[in-house]
């Protein structure tokens, strides 16, 4: 295992310390417990709180800041944060407007955020993201997995929260954005969980996994490595087939790296994906390319398409100022 | 070789096409030739033009935009752009104020930018960056190599150019920022050049290269893989020793990934680097962590320290709006 780390058990703590110190103008570590929160909260605004296992950086801590999340709760690598920690983050972030949890659809996350909600006496609602079209059931999930589309939900709902919308309205908006969003991922290599010390799965030098999950869960099938254009066509087809009648008009196109794929390849994939997507009737109105929802050091990428309406587009364009996403401020 | 590409000979062209289409609000491809230029030029402003071999993305194209470069000239992977292409970019970017070339110190780049300057009838000056303290002479360079510190030069000189400073003043500022800046890199794996199809160098599963160049050039020495804290201490020591008396007061600290190292490890390294750097008498006033000056799919990172004065700090903080660096707008 080749990683820039010290002791395996300190990986999350030390990475979090570096993150909070590098971005101390925007975020800070919770006072009593190791979660990420905004340095400056807005009184009465609904607090957006997300979280999940570590290893997907910059998700979620990188999206804490004006226009997105108020707090993010990191578990150990690929391990759900405890209900206690989620509760502490919700208590710290709530300034009177209630709390919206945004939770990727994995059993551990859903259960622990649910327990935190039950333990709290505050007003809390939950949006579950399940944008991954690859499989209907997976290693850690019943129903579809929540993957890179989660950042689109967090950005759009985050902008609406800044406008002062109430908890019920934000919950409805979050569900609507999630329903308009589809993703699929492919892997060229496995990730290596530090505590495991070896790759999560074996894959031959000439193979790739189509439909992989962000923890290295199996996808739809294992195939021989193909040219980017063929991979892109298959990914777009999986998404547009699933969207059906909705696959037209303006969309956000997100090409997301899994951590070990360089930006040059992501831009090449963006080019390869955009062609069949537009041929299928979608108009790419907004684009995002980079490593946003990663799987440690996995090589590969995911494609996310989110069908826009006018309100979603306006909220996507609204100012955002977080460590990992920043525009308009 | 596992890469998301089509034909090897189309890698740079297709990646560039995706980049320009994803960021069409900021950049466009040159009309007659494949370089990156700002969509909107400012009449009479000194034009900043940089470039070099591809494979270091987002450098340099990702730094074209308001507050940084006016044009970037990409060569093939790890191959200098031709004088013709550099000339075309300079002609397109110059709006009457003259042109400042910012060139990393590699023989091919220096020679080709120099030839373009001689071929042109415009006012052109050149800043050469040579921030890498690892070695005094390397595979492709006489004197020190120009690496991640180049982005600090581009950011600070870019902000000064927006203020309307003339060519001579910008050339002097660029030289001053370069002289205040030191970097060193380490690699855990080799990169793989697409046309070569195999790793540039062999490295054992338990080894790392200290002082590596951004094309996989050899560094100072090959050692057994060490904990992050020890690696960080050695990198900081190399930089502060080289800075000597200048290693105190406020600095920019840049922890830069080489392409295949995940953000979580870069933040952990930032934490590990910051401690000995501050113990050595530097105050980290500004921070940047991410993949900015990469080596294709190399795993590893570099550390850059730039000693600030008040003017440099003000210009660093000035608004910037490029695909890869964005704040204040």
UniProtKB/TrEMBL annotation, chains A, B:
GO molecular function terms noted in the UniProt entry: glycerone kinase activity; phosphoenolpyruvate-glycerone phosphotransferase activity
Pfam families for the chain: Dak1 (PF02733)
Pathway stated in the Swiss-Prot or TrEMBL entry: Polyol metabolism; glycerol degradation
Chain ranges of the DhaK domain: 7-327
Recorded catalytic activity of this chain's protein: dihydroxyacetone + phosphoenolpyruvate = dihydroxyacetone phosphate + pyruvate
Record GO cellular component, one term: cytosol
UniProt keyword list: Glycerol metabolism, Kinase, Transferase
EC number, as in UniProt: 2.7.1.121
UniProt xrefs under InterPro entries: DhaK_1 (IPR012736), DhaK_dom (IPR004006), Dihydroxyacetone_Kinase (IPR050861)
UniProt record, GO biological process: glycerol catabolic process
The name this protein goes by in its record: phosphoenolpyruvate--glycerone phosphotransferase
